[in-house]
Write a structure and sequence with these properties.
6% of the residues lie in helices and 39% in strands. With 412 residues, the protein is mainly β.
Length: 412
């Protein structure tokens, strides 16, 4: 009968020192211990081996009866034996900078059997890929917060991108369906199909250390993050009626009179995500191309600022326009409200909460270049940005669920 092979293997250095299984009573009476060093050969050879090369185990005479190669963490290397049991070749990649234990058994065709166990190392990776994941502060975020992954080096090749996605894991309690989107060669975003659940616990990891990504690139040190979500807070900003309706867990909790961008400065339409909050911001019109001395210029401290774009769009206090709030749009693109209402909004929302602007003449919110406009893509279009082209179902967060530290706003 053909020997059954475990799906594993790797290379080793030096001669094979095979330990024979001596013959005993019964059906094994004709077996004998042999010095099997001359029965098999391995390629490549050397004190350290190149992890990009395949492993080949060959029986010069007789047959291989077992080949098992195990990494230090217990992972086995996949491989296959030929029909004549004379050779075995790896089908899975070796990891760079890894220690391996190899066990090979063979017989000489005349009843002599032996086994060898040897350790070897692969050479370190010439180029490594690491990843920064956010948000990584174990804080509480809104249900619209995406996970971002920033690569240490660009990845262009489609096969390498697929390898990167396979090395990324996202877990959440409760579980969701989500997906990765390649923003560019160095950046990925992950979002659920329809927001995170309220009070979810989320973790993400990139952990394929030493394994090949492609093009001579190997994964470096692993990275992991975790965070939680709070209530589902959603602010619907209607530039037509000049009202903002704020929902908590799909229930209206307040309707506020507002003003948005006037003609020529219309507020961006679409979905945005709260990026940060600051009690006071010095707003200077010159930063958006309005020079000092112009009839449209401004330079003033503005209070209770909730940022929704990196280019300077906020929800903030605008005591100078209270008479127009709920009636007309008179701002330079921000959403203005009374000081009391802006303070309430500031205290109610957090990073990751969703703000949607409707009935505005402004251009559509940028999808990625000006904050988190991820929710402006349909789910079908989102999946087109995945190298694997499929959704991901998150597993449950392992281990005990800890109480989040909460969200500490930056000091003024």
């Amino acid at each position: 009968m053909r020997a059954r092979f475990l799906a594993a293997a790797a290379m080793m250095t030096g001669p094979l020192l095979l330990c024979g299984c001596s013959g005993g009573s019964g059906g094994l009476g004709h077996e004998s211990s042999v010095d099997a060093a001359g029965l098999v050969s391995l390629s490549p050879s050397g004190r350290t081996v190149d992890p990009s090369l395949p492993v080949l185990v060959t029986a010069a005479r007789g047959q291989l009866t077992d080949v098992v190669v195990t990494a230090a963490d217990g992972r086995r290397l996949a491989g296959a034996v030929t029909a004549d049991d004379r050779s075995w070749r790896s089908s899975g990649p070796l990891s760079a900078g890894e220690q391996y234990t190899v066990r090979i058994s063979a017989d000489n065709g005349d009843g002599g059997r032996g086994t060898t166990v040897q350790e070897f190392a692969t050479s370190p990776a010439p180029k490594t890929l690491t990843m920064k994941l956010t948000p990584g502060d174990k804080a509480v975020y809104g249900v619209g917060e995406p996970i971002t992954a920033t690569l240490s080096t660009p990845v262009h090749d489609p096969d390498a991108r697929r390898a990167v996605e396979r090395g990324l894991t996202v877990d959440s309690t409760p579980s969701v369906q989500g997906g990765w989107y390649w923003v560019d060669d160095s950046t990925l975003h992950f979002r659920p199909k329809s927001y995170w659940p309220a009070h979810a616990v989320v973790s993400a990891a990139f952990d394929m250390q030493g394994r090949p990504v492609g093009g001579g690139l190997y994964a470096g040190a692993p990275s992991r993050i975790s965070f939680s979500t709070g209530d589902k807070l959603f602010a619907l900003t209607d530039a037509g009626s000049d009202e903002m309706t704020v929902y908590r867990n799909d229930q209206v909790i307040r309707t506020l009179p507002i003003t948005t961008g006037k003609p020529g400065f219309s507020t961006r339409s679409g979905f945005k995500v709260v990026l940060e909050q600051t009690p006071v911001v010095l707003m200077d019109s010159s930063t958006i191309g309005i020079p000092a001395g112009s009839s449209e210029s401004y330079h003033k401290d503005v209070h209770w600022d909730t940022r929704v774009t990196w280019s300077g769009e906020y929800v903030h206090a605008a005591p100078w326009s209270v008479d127009q709030q709920g009636i007309a749009n008179v701002s330079h693109g921000c959403t203005g409200m009374s000081t009391a209402n802006a303070h309430w909004f500031y205290d109610t929302v957090r990073r990751g909460d969703v703000v949607q602007v409707v009935n505005s003449y402004g251009h559509r919110m940028e999808t990625f270049s000006n904050g988190f406009g991820d929710w402006n893509l349909s789910w079908d279009d989102w999946l087109k940005g995945s190298a694997l082209g499929r959704p991901v179902s998150t597993g449950a967060v392992s281990g005990p669920v800890s109480t989040p530290v909460g969200y500490l706003r930056p000091q003024a």
